[in-house]
Amino acid sequence: MLRKIFNPARLSRFQRTMVTVSSSDALVSTEVDDKTGYATVTLNRAPVNSLSLELMTEIVKTVDELERSNIRGMVLTSFSNKVFCAGLDIMEMVNPDLDRLRAVWTRLQDTWASLYGTSFPTVALINGHAPAGGCLLALCCEYRVMCNNFNIGLNETQLGLAVPPWLQGTMRQTIGTREAEIHCIKGTMFNSQDALKIGLVDELAAENGEAMQRALHYLNTFKQMSPYARSATKLLMRNKDIEDMKRGRKEDVERFVENVMNSDFQNGLTVYLQSLKNRKNK
Ligand SMILES: CCCCCCCCCCCC/C=C/CC(=O)SCCNC(=O)CCNC(=O)[C@H](O)C(C)(C)COP(=O)(O)OP(=O)(O)OC[C@H]1O[C@@H](n2cnc3c(N)ncnc32)[C@H](O)[C@@H]1OP(=O)(O)O
């Protein structure tokens, strides 16, 4: 599982040298620069990259294939310069089919596990808002560069959802136990500056180009380092969290289903959706 010597010949499925490989309707597009071995993975589900079952399936598949392709690093970003990812697709939770709802939560667990557990270095280039599941994607990466004037945070409790233990753990690891407890419970959304102050993101950038330079700078810090030592250290730090999540995953799915099927939650969701539409029409 650990990284071997970079071999561009193993990148066949992915486009190399910065030309998009995927068709225009692909939910995730991947470009690999064969000089550096860095992949740029772009979420491409208009309008707001909300995490449907299909988008999460594509993310997991992409990360698995990159793991096999022997890349040297990955930048995760959005097609939109306004929204990085709007979190779980709310429509997946409105009067859902139970089997699909279980599959949605299972796939969110998989998404977290595969992104959190990559052997190669990962940077989230947060070029837009990142509430809830959007913040989750960013937290899974090793390093976060955020453009100015957006919001990020785990606002689940504001929506009537509990933050699952594995996601709480990633937040704790990033901003510390005390702050994670306060802000998971409150469902705080941070603007870019406050996110930097609290350590939720590592750097700010004025715009996309600068953010990409900073992301690549982070990846370049590993150029001279043994990939084996790097990834072994990362995985030794993270594997226990993934194993813990996997041990409790069935109960976690059932808690989510119970949470979503609660009539108060369903009523709240209808009001919330309407509020999003009203905000838009103002
Ligand atoms: C002990 C432990 C117990 C554990 C128990 C388990 C319980 C479960 C826990 C679950 C926790 C973790 C899970 C995460 C849940 C989520 O991720 S829920 C989703 C949260 N997301 C949001 O609240 C974001 C809502 N959206 C916005 O705030 C804004 O849309 C935006 C800031 C992202 C973007 O704003 P703007 O650019 O102005 O676009 P809009 O006009 O608002 O939106 C365009 C369009 O998209 C629709 N939309 C927005 N977000 C979503 C979404 N998340 N899902 C689906 N659709 C979305 C929006 O309604 C607009 O649609 P129309 O054009 O009006 O049709």
UniProtKB/TrEMBL annotation:
Q: Which CDD domains match?
A: crotonase-like (cd06558)
PANTHER family, sorted: ENOYL-COA DELTA ISOMERASE 1, MITOCHONDRIAL, ENOYL-COA HYDRATASE-RELATED
Q: What is this protein called?
A: Hydroxyacyl-coa dehydrogenase/enoyl-coa hydratase
What organism is the protein native to?
Aedes albopictus (Asian tiger mosquito)
